[in-house]
Every structure is written in C-alpha cells, then in structure tokens.
Design brief:
The chain has 1117 residues and is of the alpha/beta class. Among the domains are: 176 residues, 3-Layer(aba) Sandwich (Rossmann fold), CATH 3.40.50.2300; 47 residues, no CATH class; 260 residues, Rhodopsin 7-helix transmembrane proteins (Rhopdopsin 7-helix transmembrane proteins, Up-down Bundle). The chain is 47% helix and 10% strand. Helix 15 runs antiparallel to helix 20 and helix 16 packs across helix 24.
Length: 1117
C-alpha cells in the first residue's frame, strides 16, 4: 500500500521542475499498476487506483470478488478466478467417486469465497458430491485450535475420508502438524486424504519436515511452466548494467544483505556489509512458480499501450495528445481487447469480467526428500468461462494417503446393489430400496424408472434393452387358415372375372352392369390381398398398406353396389310418376362409373387426412405381458375406425335401396342377392368391431373379417351368375328374367348383339336396328318432342338348343364388347345405353300391366301430337315380331307343336350364295302373307286413327280431344276472358304467357294450373283410347296370323309325309324328289354328308332348314 501511494504521489504531481529540496528529476506519470500478489492486498490497491482511473493487472490474486466490475471496474488479471479452481476440485472428486467429503477453509476473502464457489457447484443437481462437514479457521489460530477441528471431524458418525482445504500455505502446514500429533498420540487417528488449493500448490515450505503427513495428497496449481533462458538472463543482471530498474539496487541489497552507500558513522560497524558488486545471483537460485504470470501481465500492459498508440496516434511519430492525457478508461478498454498466445502456446485473452481462461495442474505429492521435485503432475483441468467447456485429463497414476495406488472410499453409505435405489435419510446418506422387476434404476435422479414398451431392464438394472418381439409364425393354424381363405378368395375372384370376360355379352353378365361388376371384383381382390400385409411382420410399409387399402377397397365395392341399387330404385320410382316430364338423368354406364369413383374419392380424402394426422408405424402392444412383446401397427382407434364409417354409411344406403328393390327381378334376383349381401355384411362388421376392441391378435381378426366380408359379397353377388353361365347356359337368355306375370325392372339385353351381327353378315351392310330372336321382341324408338321410347314385346319361350348358337356368336364378339364397355374415358355424351333403355322399357311395361288393372295408375309418356304415329309404329312392330318368330328358329306358343317327323339328310351340291332377291323368290309363299299384313299396317294413317280417337272420347268429355289433332294450330287472337277449355289446352306456353302479361301473379298461376290439368286429362284419354285400339287390332291380327301359320304347317306336314313316302318306295323316286325339293326349300343346308342318313329329331318346324326370313321381311315391309 505504501508503494502504491508513492506511485500515486509521483504520478499525480503536475510540476515539471521540482522546487522541493533534494528533487533533481521530473515526475513520471503512472498509467498502469501490476500486482500485488495477495488477493486482499489487490482489493485494497484497486479501491485506491480506481479513484484515479488507473488500470490494474493482477498476476496472483484469484478471489472471485475481483470479477465484480461494479466494485472493481479497472481490474483485470492473467490468473483464473477461484471459481474455476472450485470446478477443478469438484471434477477431481467426481473422478475418484469421492461423494462424502469435508471442507475446511481459512478465514478471509480467499478461503471463504473459494468455499462458497465449491458449495454452489456441489449443491447443483448434476453433482453427486455431498459436503458432510465444513468449518472455518483463522490463519493465525493456535495449534490447539487446529487439533480440535480435526478431532471434531474424526468423531463424525459417518466419517468422511477426503478433506478439501481452501487455505493459505501456512494454514495447510498447521493442519499437517495437527494430524501428525493426533495420529502419533493416544488417539491414533487415521490419516485423511487431503486436497489443497493453489495456496499450497507446489511450495516445499508447506510440507517441510511433514512429508509423511502430506504423502498421497493432491494440490491445485495454476499452470505456470518454467521460462527457458530466464536463469541465464537473471544471473547476468548487475547493478551497473541494470540501471533501467530503479528498484534493482534495493533488491540487490536485500538479496545479499549489504549496503551500497554507508554513512561515516557506520563504516566502522562490523555488522554492516558493503556490497562489492561481485555477488553471484546464481547461488541458491529458485524460480518463483508465478514467474510466467508476471511476464504475461507485463506483456498485456505493453500490448495494450501499443494498440492504443497505433490506433490513436497513427500520424505521429511521438506520443499524441490522447496518450499524454493519461486516459485510464480508454487504456483499460484496449487492455481487455488484448489477445495473444505465449511461448507455451497458452492463449491469453479476457472475458467481460477481465478473467482469462482457466488452466490448472493437478499435483500429487509423493513425499520423498531426495527428489528434486516431490510433486508429480498427474493431470490438468481446463475451463473456458464464456463457452462453458470443462475438461479434466488425468494422465498419470496417483498415490494416495496410505502410500498405495488403491483408491480409498469416502462415502456415507455403501452403494446399493443391482436393482436398488438410494433413499436419502440425511446429507449424503441413504438406505437401499429394491425396484420392481420391470424397472431400472436411474442413477441421475435416483429413481426406479419403468422400461418403455418393448424393452426390459438389463442385467445391471441401469437401463433397458429391447425385447425380441414375438411374431406369430406363418405356420400357426390361424395364419394358415387366414392365408388359405385369402388365396382362395383371390383365385375365385380372378376366375369369376375370366368367366365374365368370356361371356361378356350374355344377358346374365350384362344384367349385372358389367363395368360395375368388374370394379366390384377388383375391390374384392384388394380385400383378400391385404391379408398378406396384415399377417406380415409389422413395419412402416405394411402398416401403411393395412391402413390405406382396406377402407378404400371396401369403398370401391360398396360404392359400385350403391350406384347399382340407386339406379334401379330411381328408374322404378320414375316409372311410377303420372307424367314423365323429362328424361331420367345419370343412368348411362359412364355416369354410373363416374359416380362410383367420386364416392371412392371421398374415401381417399378421408384416408389422406387421417394419414396426415396420425402416420402409421410399427410399435409394441400396450397390453403385452412382462417380458412378452407383441409388435403391431401404432394406430389410434379413432384414426383406424373413422374411414370405415364412410364404408358403413355406404353399406347402410345399399341396404336401404336393396330393401326397396328386394322383389326385382323374379329369376336372376340381382336386387334380392344384393340385399342378402348387405344384411350379412352388417352382421360381419358389427362382430368385427366387437372383436377388434377386445382381442390381442388384431391383425388375425382383421384378416378374417376382411376376407369374410369379401367372401359374402363374392358368393351372393357372383356365384348365382356363375351357376347359370356354367351349369345352365340355356337359362342365360333374357326370357329367363323378363317375367310374364308382372314384368319386373332389371338390367340386361337379349340377343341384340347376336342378331345385329348376323344381319350384317347376311345383308353385307350396316344396320342399327336390333331384333330380339330368343325373346321374340322387336322394338322401335319413336323420337317425339319430349317423348321417350316405347317397346312392344311378345315373350316366347326358347328351346335349349338355341343357346349354343348364342354362345358361339357371343364369344366372337367378347373382346370387342369388353373393350367397348370400358371405353368411357373421353366419350361424348350419348343417349341411354341399351341395357339401361331396356331397364326403362321393362319398368314401363310393369306400369302398363298395373294400368290395365287400375285406371287410376296411368303412366302418360307420349307427346300430344304423336299419338297416331306411335300407334301405327306399335302395330307394325307387333307384325314384325310375329313374322320374325314364324321365320326364325323359335316356335310361337299360339300354334300347337307339329308332330315328330323324321328328317332326311341327302347329298346335294355345295351351297351357293343367295342374294336378297333369290331369297325373296324362294320364300314367296310366306312373303306374300307378310307383305299383305305390312301393307295393312302402313295403310293405317294418323288422320283415321285420330278421328276414331275423337269418336271414342266424345261420350267421356264434352271438351273433346285436346291433344290428338295434328292439324289444329294455335288459337286465334281474341280477348283473354273468352278462352274455352279446348282452346286453353291447345294454346302453347309462349302464347299463354303473352296473353297473361300484366296479370296478377296469382291469376297467372291459376290459368297455368288449369292448362296443365286439361292437357293431362287429354293425355289420359288419348292413351286409354290408344291402348283399346291397339289391343283390339293386335287380337285381330293374331287371329289371322294363326290361320296363316296353320296353313303353312299343314303344307309342310303334307310335304314331309310325301317325302317320307317317296323314300320308302325306293330309289326310283329320288330324281323326282330332287326336282321337288328346290321349290320347297328356300336355301340348301349348309353341309350334307355323303351317305343317306335318316335322323329322327324332335325339334320345331323351323329347324329343318337354315332359311332366314328377317332380310326378306325387312324388304317386304
């Protein structure tokens, strides 16, 4: 402190010429101070220097208080704070697992602050060290006080073996002396394992004559390597060559105990020795361990001044004004920014508190006097405060207090066994408690922790290890049964698809709406195939498949079924309306397929949203037993079930529509089987939901449920069709599902494709007309304003033999029909498909049957100006149906069967191609009759029909027919109030709107409603009259046709009897038979074998020859 005041007195003085006696030099200003060594002295000096804003650099003061910039704003140091020393001691305790220690510290800033830092670190959760005993002692305390401290420490119930001493060197020596006294005395106290702070470091004076007590102890030393070459430089110094140091002569006098200047009175004093200058500094040389820190502190000041000069005095060769002003605040900022590495590659820089990075040496005292250095460096500790990096590196073996390398224990309680946790009873003491079998011990929190799902505690009970999951073997009975069911379902579905493709154009296949049937089969295959992913080992990919495919596959199946049943229900409901004002919408195959995929797209959106919210992955079942693990897909129950709600919604709608159409039709029972499918599916799904919630083998349950649902649909929807196609092909005709009692609505077409193809081949020209041979129906569409198609049909049973020709014709067009069925992408909007049109016609015929029995259920379909033309077309269609039946292979039920007549096959010339005229001449006997009746049908004119219509309606309505006259135009202009009912019914809507312009809205609605009522009344009367006329006309025509057919059959029977007679008489009549035969048969048989064969064949008359009457009939009519 006196030296500091002297520096300040010289530095603060402002005079350039001293007036004081004895002053012969100018004052030198002080810009920075280095030192002193002790922390307490450094704090006192800093309190004085900061008043004058003079920076201070410490080389030995380590107290943490000096890091407080609010109190010591002009201080920085090149040695680390004791906070880092506490970290080094804490890491050393953890390294040797000394968890139960005592701490002794000296009174004063150094010891107390060091203890506080260590206590804060140990109190942290991450530290496992506990301070069992702590006490403060004065540095100048007596020996007895030191002994009492150790006696109290030794008498603890749980005696700590390790003692940490935050003390000065003198206090450390006093503890060694007290331990020696207690160990050698009556108490025979066991020695402690000491850890000293840097106050002891590697000082030999601390352990002098106490080496045995200090053996095995550890001390902390600030890293300070020896300076190479410093001894040579130091020993070469002399008062004559070191005049730059004003204190060197004083140091020389103190070092050698001599005086350079002696007064006259002391010259004769023998006790005073005069310095000769020949003294040698190399004698008793001992380098101070803090020498490197002193050098670094001097270098920091020099580099700070240099940086300040280069920054502030760039253009001056001498000191600038800012340097001469001695601005300590500015200089302190430059000192904080100094950064360099010393000659030992040790970085030197400062943090915001003016502290450098920490680097400590861990020393182990081995206690041998003979060694030059009894301190063995066994490790090092480095810490960077700004970055929080701590590193303890123990590089050498250590010796402990008992002079062995056996690590001593310093614990309150013994470590617990495997699977036990420590329950603390007092500071750093505990009792051991066992954990459960499924728990492990967390050493950090000292708690029993449950192992996560799918793991089990390891052998040491310090963690968990994965359990090998139990995967049900593919060879188990359940898996084999599920796989067999899935494979069988896939094979059956594919076989069904192949059969349907081979019979693509047959009535049975067409009645199922082929496109929707193929979509349903694809969904069923996906339902079966998903079982392979369900039964495989759960993974991310398999879980994704089992999450996505099932709901979408079921949506495909039930969307197609819903579309199919909805179309049937809509057509049936539309046919019940009294007035059909517009064409039914969305009935084409293209519309049905689009609607199906729209419903499937909704399911895809639901599944996609579910995947974004809960991505599927494989995990372990939560209900697994200990040490038993079941791997399954991690999917929340709601995420799994929500997509199936849409499927269940489709099933519910399908069930409702199937119930409404359960009576349609009578034979193929498509709607009835759909209903059975839905009923069974609802039962299966309810059982599946119950089992899914309560079973541990969810994958197996889902596999059986999916396969069972698909099997129900496959068996009830397709097996009846397969049975008819494969086992009873004779029933694969339209007559099998178009009933004669109450004609029910259903899909399907007869032999339109077959007949159209045969006509094109026979005539060699394209035609759009289709004639149904097997069902005996011929239809013609009349295009009217706002009207729809009407069909006149005569249903005739067909023999079994006619099916073979149908299948042959169907197979030839299977590929083209199938390609056409699915060529819906890019198609233009067209009219109703043939199948749908026949469905609509069947529904109308069904309603016609009901109208005949009840006049109240009239279905009004024809436009008011086309009644006469439609009636004529109906009569003509009936004629064509009867003639085609007579000319074809079928037998008309109105004519009795011809007796069995033997058929003779004789060799003739090869058949030749007959054109249309030749066929017409050969069939003259039939064509004449046909022409006469076709002419009669065409003679019926619209005017004569309408006149008859008016005569029939006259007794019923005084207003007359309001819709049958073609020639009546719009009413003549007259006032609005003079309209009669007949004129109001005949006026158009546009004319009525013009007449009603300006009238009240209520009045307009009344007149329009009156007009609609009159027109509907006219429709009903016209249609009823038309049906009566048609029925009467058809009965007359049928009677005439029966007579003609009877005549033809009699002639044919007579010819057969004559032919039989000629053959029996011998070969003499053979030539005459060949002459007669061409006049009888229109065309020769296709193939005649060489030998004469007499065959008895029970067939219809039309089976004798291959005559085709349709081309002739078409030409005649």
């Amino acid at each position: 402190m006196e030296q500091t005041i002297a520096f300040l007195r010289e530095g603060v003085a402002q005079c350039s010429c001293c007036q004081t006696p004895g002053c012969n030099k100018k004052s030198v200003p002080v810009v920075a101070v280095i030192g002193p060594g002790k922390s307490s002295s450094t704090i006192a000096v800093q309190n004085l220097l900061q008043v004058f804003r003079i920076p201070q650099v410490g080389y030995s003061a380590t107290t943490p208080d000096l890091s407080d910039k609010e109190q010591f704003g002009y201080f920085l140091r090149v040695v680390p704070s004791d906070v880092f020393q506490a970290q080094a001691i804490n890491r050393l305790l953890h390294h040797y697992n000394w968890t139960y220690v005592a701490v002794l510290y000296s009174a004063g800033n150094y010891g107390e602050k060091g203890f506080e830092s260590l206590e804060r670190l140990i109190a942290h959760r991450s530290s496992s060290v506990c301070i069992a005993y702590s006490e403060k002692i004065k540095t100048l305390a007596s020996d007895q006080e030191y002994r009492q401290v150790l006696t109290r420490l030794d008498s603890q119930n749980s005696r700590p073996q390790v003692v940490v001493c935050f003390c000065e060197g003198a206090s450390m020596r006093q503890f060694f002396k007290a331990q020696k006294h207690l160990a050698d005395g009556k108490m025979q106290m066991k020695r402690f394992q000491w850890i000293g702070s840097d106050g002891w470091a590697d000082r030999n004076d601390v352990v002098e004559d106490l080496e045995q007590e200090a053996e095995g102890s550890f001390s902390i030393r600030i890293h300070a390597p020896k300076i190479p070459g410093f001894r040579q430089y130091y020993t070469a110094l002399h008062p004559e060559n070191n005049t730059m140091n004003p204190w060197f002569r004083e140091f020389w006098q103190q070092k050698f105990n001599c005086q350079f200047a002696v007064s006259k009175e002391d010259k004769n004093n023998e006790n005073i020795r005069i310095c000769s200058g020949d003294e040698n500094l190399d004698e008793q040389y001992k380098e101070d361990p803090k020498l490197s820190q002193v050098i670094n502190s001097i270098r920091v000041v020099a580099l700070g001044l240099k940086a300040m000069y280069q920054d502030r005095c760039r253009d001056n060769s001498t000191l600038c004004t800012e340097m001469l002003s001695r601005n300590g605040t500015l200089l302190y900022e430059y000192l904080l920014n100094v950064t360099y590495s010393d000659q030992f590659k040790q970085p030197v820089y400062f943090d915001r508190n003016g502290d450098p990075p920490a680097w400590y040496d861990i020393l182990n005292y081995i206690g041998t006097k003979d060694l030059d250095n009894p301190y063995n460096e066994v490790g090092s500790f480095k810490s960077i405060n700004d970055y929080g990096v701590e590193e303890l590196d123990m590089t050498a073996k250590s010796m402990f207090f008992d002079k062995t390398e056996i690590l001593p224990e310093s614990v309150c309680s013994r470590p617990c066994g495997v699977g036990q946790r420590q329950r603390e009873t007092m500071a750093c003491c505990w009792i051991c408690e066992s954990c459960l079998d499924i728990q492990y011990v967390n050493k950090t929190t000292n708690q029993c922790m449950n192992c996560s799902l799918g793991s089990w505690p390891n052998a040491n009970r310090t963690g968990c290890e994965d359990i090998i999951p139990e995967v049900v073997s593919w060879t188990s009975f359940g898996h084999i049964l599920a796989l067999v069911l899935a494979v069988t379902g896939i094979i059956t579905s594919l076989a069904t698809l192949v059969v349907f493709l081979r019979h693509n154009s047959t009535p049975v296949v067409k009645s199922t709406t082929r496109e929707l049937s193929y979509i349903i089969l694809s969904g069923l295959v996906a339902c079966y195939a998903v079982s392979f992913a369900l039964l495989a080992t759960p993974s991310t990919s398999s879980c994704f498949i089992t999450r996505v495919i099932p709901p979408i596959a079921f949506a495909v199946v039930y969307s197609a079924l819903l579309t199919k049943t909805n179309r049937i229900a809509r057509i049936l409901a539309g046919s019940k309306k009294r007035i059909l004002t517009k064409k039914p919408r969305f009935l084409t195959t293209f519309s049905q397929v689009v609607i199906t995929w729209i419903l499937v797209a909704v399911q895809c959106v639901i599944v996609g949203v579910g995947l974004m919210r809960d991505w599927p992955d494989a995990t372990y079942a939560k209900y697994a037993l200990p040490r038993k693990l079941i791997l399954e897909c991690d999917t929340e129950t709601k995420s799994f079930l929500i997509p199936f709600f849409w499927d269940f919604f489709l099933i519910t709608l399908c069930t409702l529509y199937a119930f409404k159409t359960r009576n349609l039709p009578e034979n193929f029972n498509e709607a009835k089987f759909i209903g059975f499918t839905m009923y069974c599916t609802v039962v299966v799904w309810i059982a599946f939901l119950v089992l899914h919630m309560g079973t541990t083998h969810k994958a197996l349950v889902m596999s059986f449920s999916y396969s069972l649902s698909a099997s129900v649909a496959l068996a009830l929807l397709f097996f009846p069709k397969l049975y008819i196609i494969l086992m009873h092909p004779e029933k694969n005709i339209r007559a099998s599902y178009t009933t004669t009692k109450l004609i029910r609505c259903h899909f399907g077409n007869s032999q339109a494709a077959y007949d159209s193809t045969s006509k094109q081949q026979h005539l060699g020209s394209k035609t759009t007309a289709r004639t149904s041979v097997q069902s005996g129906s011929a239809s013609k569409s009349s295009s009217m304003g706002g009207g729809v198609t009407r069909t006149a049909s005569v249903h005739v049973p067909v023999s079994r033999g006619s099916t073979h020709s149908t299948d042959a014709s169907t197979q030839t067009e299977a590929a083209s029909k199938f390609a056409r069925s699915f060529s819906i992408v890019g198609r233009k909007k067209q009219g109703l498909d043939d199948d749908v049109q026949q469905l609509v016609d069947a529904c109308r015929r069904y309603q016609d049957e009901k109208i005949n029995s009840s006049a109240a259920n009239l279905l009004l379909e024809e436009a008011e100006d086309e009644v006469g033309a439609l009636l004529a077309d109906s009569i003509e269609n009936s004629m064509r149906t009867v003639l085609s039946t007579v000319a074809g292979k079928a037998v008309v039920p109105l004519v009795p069967m011809v007796p069995v007549v033997p058929v003779i096959a004789v060799p003739t010339a090869p058949p030749q191609e007959d054109n249309f005229e030749q066929c017409s001449k050969k069939s003259a006997n039939v064509s004449v009759v046909a022409k006469s009746w076709c002419s009669t049908a065409r003679i019926v004119s619209s005017h004569s029909i309408m006149s008859n219509n008016q005569q029939l309606m006259s007794p019923v309505s005084s207003a007359g027919s309001v819709s049958s006259s073609r020639e009546s135009g719009s009413p003549s202009p007259r006032s609005f109030d003079q309209f009669s009912d007949e004129e109001l019914a005949q006026i158009s809507v546009r004319q009525l709107n013009q007449k009603l312009m300006g009238q009240d809205r209520h009045v307009v609605m009344q007149w329009k409603q009156k007009r609609r009522t009159l027109k509907n009344r006219g429709y009903a009367l016209n249609c009823r009259a038309k049906r009566l006329r048609t029925q009467t006309q058809l009965e007359q025509e049928n009677a005439i046709l029966r007579n003609e057919v009877k005549v033809l059959q009699e002639r044919l029977a007579d010819s057969q009897m004559r032919l039989h007679y000629y053959i029996e008489q011998g070969q003499g009549f053979y030539s005459s038979y060949q002459t007669f035969l061409p006049t009888l048969m229109p065309s020769p048989p296709s193939t005649i074998p060489d030998p004469v064969v007499i065959a008895h064949q029970p067939s219809a008359v039309s089976n004798i020859t291959n005559i085709k009457f349709e081309p002739e009939y078409k030409n005649i009519c």
